[in-house]
Each structure stands twice: as C-alpha cells, then as structure tokens.
C-alpha cells in the first residue's frame, strides 16, 4: 500500500531575514518542533530564545497553517504556508497564491534510529505531515496532528 498523499492549494508568504523577536509573533498559538543540541523538542509554544544549534523550527496550527524558520546565526528566514495571511503587521516580501502543496503523512524515525537522540514519548502521539510546496520557491513545511485533534478542517483541493 502506498503512503497517503493529498494535494492542496495554499498561499506561500516569505518574510525574509528577521530577528528572533520579530519572528515570535508568527509563532503565537502554534505548536512547534525543532532539534537543537539538547535533542528534539515538541512544544505548545516557541522557545523564548533562539535555540542554540538548531537549523530549523517548524510550527503549525493544522495542515493549512504552517510556519517554517531557517536559522542563520542570530536571525531567521521565515515563511508561512496558509489559506489566509498571518495576523501580523509585517508585509511579506514574497506572496505566491495557489501554490501546489503535496501533503505526505508519515513518522519521524524509529526509536532505534537516534538521529537526534531518543525521541520523547510525546513524539509518538502525533501524526506527522510534510507539506511540500512546489513552484519557483519550493520549500518543505512540517505539521502534525495529535490523537486528541485528528480532525483537520476541510482543505481546498487542487483539481
């Protein structure tokens, strides 16, 4: 049996290089995951300080509201993938409407893999999704749904 894939049409917003303080408003009311020198973290809110040794942080409300941060020393490059713009006064530097997004559902890695140390038990309570945005600015976002919140809002489909 092949893995489940869905195709969505979402809007990609790119905000360029921001300080951590400038990025934090985009992460309000989002679950977050990142891997740093202390291992993998899954949190209901973003860390108050830039994680040391991390390369990316992914944040989500559901599979249609995602944030991706790539760390660059003391700054981040931030993009969002959603149906509507995030609630912020910052204007995106890039907007790509109706971006084709492939959603692939899967697992992080097995307990014996230890890519970032042992996974916390809470990692197994989530179903993980890769959102692969196609187009001139391809990017991958990570979201998850928990056992307590398996229902996902109706998503616009690409025809």
The percentage of residues in β strands lies in over 45%
Q: Order of strands across the widest beta sheet?
A: 3-2-4-5-6-1-7-8-9
- Major sheet details: 9 strands, antiparallel
Query: Could you report the average pLDDT, rounded to the nearest whole number?
Result: 84
Order of helices and strands: EHEEEEEEEE
Distance separating the two termini: 23 Å
Tell me how many strands there are. Answer: 9
Helix content: under 10%
Brief summary of the model shown:
This protein starts with a strand and ends in a 13-residue tail after the last strand. Strands 3-2-4-5-6-1-7-8-9 form a nine-stranded antiparallel beta sheet.
Can you describe this structure?
Helices cover 3% and strands 49% of the residues. It has one helix and nine strands, in the order E-H-E-E-E-E-E-E-E-E. It is globular. The longest helix is centred in the N-terminal third of the chain and has 4 residues, at 20-23. It is mainly beta and 159 residues long. The chain has a nine-stranded antiparallel beta sheet. The protein has one helix at residues 20-23, and strands spanning 5-19, 31-36, 39-43, 56-62, 65-72, 75-82, 94-106, 126-133, 139-146.
